[in-house]
Model the fold of this input.
Amino acid sequence: TIYLVWANRGDFDRYLTWFCWCNVVLGTGLLLASYMFAPIGETTLLFDRYCSLTWNPNRFAGLMVIYTSALLYLASKRTKLAPLFMLLCGFACHLIWISGCRAGLIIIFVQLVGWAGTILRFDLKKAVAKTLIFVSLSGTLVIAGFLGSINLLTHNTILVADKGCITVFENKFEKFGDQDSDDGYSDEDADPSSGKDRFEKGDKTIDQFTSGRLQIWSFYLKGMNLRGNDMQDFELVLPSGNTFHNAHNTVIEIGYRYGIPAGLAYALFMIATTIALIKACLTVSKKRSSIGIALFTVAYFVFAMTDVMTLTFERGPVLAFYLVLGGLITGEVLNKDA
Done:
């Protein structure tokens, strides 16, 4: 429906701007709610990772990368609100960092580097000084927002539901105060593989560092066939005792469920989309909508490599990706004369 309507209208930029503004309003609401109502919650203590108002740190990071995608696209339009958008992006980056979501951090890194490179490609020849100042100022504001979020959220001691106090420093969550209270929490509740330790290789094997994903992928790859497999009531129990119900990779999951041809088809779709967007942003397109499409695509594709993301209304990055994909299908961003 999105493709048919906006392809005929020929003003995909307007649709993308509206879509991003909606995400910015919702994302800013979540950002403010995180600082005001969920600075550090009980779920954070259990996971040793920040969850905000959600029950899962990875889901929260998924919402934040949609937010950063929208902010960066609107900032690329060089409006008067661009500095505010970049500052808010810095706040979101910090929340992604303390969520401990590695996919989220990869996404925001690729988004920021790609955004800066594309802005330079679009505007550097037109106005060298102004463009360099804009990109430099944008980077400074992102850093300022990151540091500002630390001051707001992590350098405070916060009372949580009268169950004792939690202090946060250097991405580590520790409980102190009412140590003897029967609140169901203890220092042993925190997952030692979470939080800051998730980013430290140390003596971990590659499989341990990836939270068992190599074992999961190996099992699913060995079980692939041409016709697919019945997944009803399926669960995979690893030697570590952890239980999984999917492949933690969208392409592998599709290939295992529906057969090798289906998995290959989706992999080719992702590769073709990536190549088209790289071409659009770096060599062809004169339309800034290509930046927005690329930002949302990065958010979806990186998460799709570490988790199963197929149902559009189950995970935010999936819906956002398909809602902006129409701009690429029309071919508008690949047209040199557009």
Notes: The radius of gyration is 21 Å. The first helix runs from residue 2 to 9. The chain has a mean pLDDT of 77.
